[in-house]
Amino acid sequence: LDVPGREFLLRTIRELAETRPELTLVFITQRIEDILPQFTHGMILKEGQIMADGLREEVLTEENLKQAFGMDLQLIQTRSGRFWTVIE
Fold first, then answer.
1. Cβ contact 76:84 at 8 Å
2. pLDDT band per the 50, 70, 90 thresholds, residue 88
3. Helices (H), the chain
4. 47 Ramachandran zone, left/alpha/beta (phi>0; psi -120 to 50)
5. How many domains are contained in the chain?
């Protein structure tokens, strides 16, 4: 998806999560910036194996991402609650 299309999709998912809390949403991505604040849990896979899983704030850490991607990076959380990675 291009950037406007991706943001439209993420906005739609966010609205669905906020208006239909009884639904369980499963979202799969390789892009850290696609992880919405409404997602409460996460899982990181490395070489097809579960490397970390649990609450989002416990799973989505710099250490876990460095280990998963095998590179030095910085994890930045924006005011909107979304994350970005900066490769060092």
1. yes
2. confident
3. 3-19, 56-59, 62-69
4. left
5. 1
